[in-house]
Structure formats: structure tokens, C-alpha cells
Amino acid sequence: MNVRPAAARVTWLVGAAAFVLFACALALLIGPTSIDRSSILLEALDAVLPVDVDSGLNDRQASIVRTLRLPRVALGLLVGAALSTAGATFQGVFRNPLADPYLLGVAAGGGFGATIAFVYNLGDGRGFLDMVQIFAFIGALAAVGLTWTMGVLGDRTRSASSLILAGVAVASFFTAMQTYLQQANTDDIRQVYSWFLGGLNTSGWVEVTQLLPFVIVGVIVLVLASRSLDVLAVGDDEATMLGLSVGRTRIVLVVVASLLTASAVAVSGLISFVGLIIPHTVRLLFGASYRIVVPMSVAVGAGFLVLCDLIARTALSPAELPIGVVTAFFGAPFFVVILRTAAGR
Amino acid sequence: MSQTVPAVSVQQVSVHVKKATLLNNVSIDVAPGEWLSIIGPNGAGKSTLLRSIAGVIECAGIVEIAGTPIAHLSSRQRAGLVSWVPQTPTIPVGMNVLDYVLLGRTPHLHPLSSPGKADIEIARRVIDDLDLTGLADRLVETLSGGERQRVVIGRALVQESPVILLDEPTSALDLGHQQEVLQLLDRLRSTGDRTIISTMHDLTLAGQFADRLMLLAAGEIAATGPASTVLTSELIETHYRASVNVTTVDGAVLVVPRIHPPNSSATKEP
User: Do B103 and A230 touch (CB under 8 A)?
Assistant: First the structure.
């Protein structure tokens, strides 16, 4: 008898949970202010769990843990989970290993929205319902909507390739508008530039609470629907004959994954590669079935981004490196690994 | 024909793609438990007819499964009634045989749920029936053509639909596996009352296993009936542009191509 799903999956999920906890603990412990390590962990437990734990920290130290480090770790978890889950879903929906969450124009649309807000001084990207976040969110969804409309107009069967091509066109268009706006207002170029490289900027728990509902709902839906990605893998015709409503499945998954991506982009800017490399890593380690790839991407993506953020804020301390630089640094060489594996098949 | 509702009823089905007519006014009823084999030269419209019955292409006319027009069914309901073995299936990368066969359980599962113990049991039984037991954990993409073909048939069988459509089910198989697969299908239809519609290039095999043959040529029905009336040298020579001998061995109609066609010059215009 072979070792089959249930047992293996439990082991992997436990392993992934351990990885996430390890990443969180590490990120909590390391920072510019040195605080007693065990006390940090106790304080974090006190904040997260519904039990009273006495950490022995003074008010200032407790506040560093509770309002600086913890929310930042939480935001990293949410953004990492959102991007990698959305990436895995896009790869399945479009049967394309190079698909990432930005495939349908989310990045270009979000970038255009954010640039408008920066240029007209509507916000700075931080805080509750900040205009940069709102504009980025709306821009991202507008781009996906336009891509979908163009793809469907161009090809009534809504084939994967027509949507991808429409995505390329829409992304170029939004990028052109964004670049124009940016070049016409060079005073704001620094802000725009730094937004484009991504960052986990927190003002207390505000960003986390804004993002949380999107991530919870989105991730649950995508994990539950992951089996339909396995069905889609046999092509639209065969999937239809297997009883899958291909058109409806595709639109539901694209809408949910796009909302998830747009909400993450709104609070953290453009963080590249996470949505691409995490699903691939998971696939190499645990197998290609989306029933494994999607849930494992949630955990591995969350832990990975927390670690990247740790590097981003410590490498040039006290200055901060944009997190997109860190993810790209690890992401680019990863392509070589993917290529080698693909060639070995 | 008895008075029962046909398992599959094709009524005046036509398929036009741009200006080309792929199928023209095809009508046929297939009884429950019957095996109909569609034969005909390349481009006659065999696969198109199967795809129309499967509901994956738009067609004019009506296709009914067990009395219900398929146009009124959701893809899930339809998949509960008809399964399809395509001629060139898309093989997903990195999927093992058991998971692939389990895809056939899709119409029986809620869209957001996963296959359970009962589904896995059904899949394992079919895998055993198809002589694939040792391959359950292998990746489908690493299998030989014949093994792959049986895996795809396995996926259709676990769908447990009353009607099975097979597009050239034996073209990738060696003689032994051809016989095995066709015998398995034959057993399923006699014991499980399944209805089978297949397209076949091998005329002898088609005639041996099917109850009825349907000869399609240029999108129209040229002949239907038992092998003895459809597999005649006249019909085959007309529609296949082949020169053949038709003989009967042990009740099976044998179609044998002639190496040296008689009076080959006579076919030329005077």
C-alpha cells in the first residue's frame, strides 16, 4: 500500500505550520531595540492568545512588541498568504506555470491608482482607508475588469490564452498612463518608486484589520476550490465533460484571486516573485496536485514573506530595504531551478 | 426497436464551422445497452458527432440522453449521464494515476469537496479491472501510450455514467490490450447496462464488438446496420477510396486491404 493523501498531508501541514511559527518567532525577536527574548515571546502570546501571560516587560517594550513588531509580522503573514495563494490559483486557472497574481493587470492598475493618489497628494499609503490604498485597490480591480471584458469580447469561449493576451495589453496601457503621470510630476517620484518596490508599512493594527477579512474569505474559498484546478488541468473540453462548469469556475476563481491580490497590493505595494516562486517551490517539494499546492502555498508564502521582511528591515538597518528587492533577490535565481527541473522532466 | 426511451437520441444534428459543414442532418437512436460504432474515412465527422453528443461543441438539432435534451442539463448533470474518452487527451503534468482516475468522480462530488473513501475504492476497482494496479502511484505523463489510454478509459469508467463515448479507444493499444479493453467495455455494457458509442478506425474490430455500425461520409450517414450489411466492399471502396476484400471468419467480418487492386487501370476515366 502506498502512503496516501491523508497521512502525508497532515505531516506536511504540521511541518508548514512549524515553519510559519519559526518565521514569526524569529521576526519578533530581531529588531533595533534589544529586549529580553523570552519576554518578547511571552508578550506576543499574551497579545495573541486569550489568556493572561505576564511577560515582565515595561510599557515601552511591551508597546514595541504589540504595536510595531507583532502587526508587522501579521501583515507579512497576510500579504504572503494572499499573494502566493492567488499565484497558485492563477497558475491553475490559466494552466500556465509563469502565471502570477499580477497576470491580469493587477499590478499595473494598482500602480496607476497609487500614482494618482501620490501625485495629487491624497494620502501616503499608511493608515485607515488611506487614499493611496483605496486608489490602488480600485485601479487593480479596474484593470482586471477591463482585461476580463476584453478577453471575453475577443473570444466568446473565454479561453485562457485570450485572457492572458488581454492582460498583457491592459497592463501595458495602465503602465503607459502611470509612467506619463509619474514623469509629469517628478516631485513625487520617490514615493511612487518606493511604493512600486513594496513594503510592509504598518500603523499599529490598522492595515492588518483592513486586510484580514479579504485574506480569510479569499484563502478559504481558494483552498476549498483547489480540486477544481486539478480538473481544469485536463483542458476546458475534458473538464466540461467531467462535470465542471468551466466558465463559472474560472470567473469565480479569477474574481476571488484578484480581490485577494488587490487587497494585498493596496496595503503593501508591489511585491514581486512571491506569487510565482512559492507555488513552484511547494510543487517541487510536495507534488503537483492543487489540493496540496494551494493550502501549502498559504502557509509557505506567509512564512516566506515574514522572513523576507525581516531581512528587508535588518540588512541596512536603520534604513529599510524595499521588500520587493529581497523577494526578487531570492526569486530571480529560482527561475534557474525551475528551468532545470522542467528540463529534467 | 423496443418501446423504451433510447439511451441516446440524435435528431437532425448539423454542425457548421464558418462555411464548412462538418455534420449534416444526422439522426440516430441508440438503445440502452447497445454498442454503436461510428466508422468512416478521415474527416467524415466521426469525432464531431461524438463531441456533439458530449455537448462540447455547439450543434443544430437535438441530442437527448435518456429522453432529456442535453441542452437543458448543467455540465454536472450531463457528466453524470455521459462520459467521454477523447482521442488525444490532455495529460496534466505531475498527476499520478489514482488522482487522474479520481477526476472522473467530479460529477458525483460537491464543487468544494474532495473525493472520499468510497470514491477512492471505486477508482481502485477500476484500476484493477484495467490491469493498472501496479501503476496507481506513477505519474500519468511517464506511462506508455497504451497505459495512458487505459488510464483515460479508467477515468471515464469511474464516472459511472450510463453512456460512454469513446473516440478511437484502441488506436494506441497493442493487439492484446485492444482485445482486453474492448472485452472490458463489452462486459460493462452487458452487466451494467451501459450504452457505448465509439469511433473506430479498425473496421474488423468495429464490426466484431459493436452491435451496429454507422458509416459516416462527408458529414452524412452513408449506412447503418450490423457489420454484415455495412462492411461491404462496395460501401468501403466508395467511401474510403480503398480496395478491399471482405470475408467472414468465425462469424466475424474481416476487412482486408488488397495489395494489388484488380484492374487498377479500370478505375481511370476512359
Answer: yes
Of B74, B84, B93, the CB nearest to A241: B84
DSSP string, A179-232: HHHHHHTGGGHHHHHHHHT-----STTHHHHHHHHHHHHHHHHHHHTHHHHHHH
Which CATH number is B73's domain given?
Answer: 3.40.50.300
Task: Say what the pTM is.
Answer: 0.87
Contacts of A238 in chain B (CB under 8 A): 84, 86, 89-90
Identify whether B3 is part of a domain: no
Q: How many CB atoms lie within 10 A of CB A263?
A: 26
A212 or A197: which carries more pLDDT confidence?
A212
Is the residue at B1 inside a domain? no
Give domain A8-344's CATH superfamily. Answer: ABC transporter involved in vitamin B12 uptake, BtuC (1.10.3470.10)
pLDDT, tens digit (0-9, with 9 covering 90-100), for B194-211? 999 999 988 999 999 999
Q: Does B116 reach chain A within 8 Å, measured CB to CB?
A: no
Q: Do A224 and B99 touch (CB under 8 A)?
A: no
Say if B148 is an interface residue toward chain A (CB within 8 Å): no
Burial class (CB in 10 A: 0-12, 13-18, 19+), A52: exposed
Q: Is B104 on the interface with A (CB under 8 A)?
A: yes
Residue of B nearest to A243 (CA): B76
Model confidence over B128-152: pLDDT tens digits?
988 888 998 899 999 988 888 889 9
CB contact under 8 A, B75 and A288: no
B218-270 per-position pLDDT tens digit: 999 999 999 889 998 889 888 888 888 888 888 888 888 888 766 654 444 44
